[in-house]
């Protein structure tokens, strides 16, 4: 759904495994072709596989190449945060690293 500023929110709800990622991929591709900014809402994400995380990284790279902002709405779900921690994408403890900012926002 787009608002007047050209912002589109792509909602992700339920398990984000290989099967579900195809739908999200298509919605992200559509959003990136028509918006100036894309916000991905992962607050309702359940089981999270690495393919979903890879999809978000690829979408972020594609958006940057087009000059489009791609951001994760905060907060992300606990299960997604767990998958990001287990995969080493965000720190499990200690201060927020620069690399964490895309995933968990800027403190």
UniProtKB/TrEMBL annotation:
STAS domain ranges (all copies): 1-107
Domain of life: Bacteria
InterPro entries membership: MlaB-like_STAS, STAS_dom, STAS_dom_sf
Protein name as annotated: STAS domain-containing protein
């Amino acid at each position: 759904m787009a608002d007047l500023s050209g912002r589109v929110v792509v909602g992700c709800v339920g398990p984000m495994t290989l099967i579900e990622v195809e739908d999200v991929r298509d919605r992200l591709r559509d959003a990136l072709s028509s918006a100036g900014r894309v916000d991905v809402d992962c607050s309702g994400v359940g089981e999270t596989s690495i393919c979903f995380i890879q999809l978000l990284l690829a979408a972020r790279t594609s958006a940057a190449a087009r000059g489009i902002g791609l951001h994760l709405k905060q907060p992300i779900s606990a299960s997604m945060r767990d998958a990001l921690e287990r995969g080493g994408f965000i720190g499990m403890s200690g201060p927020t690293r620069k690399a964490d900012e895309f995933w968990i926002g800027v403190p």
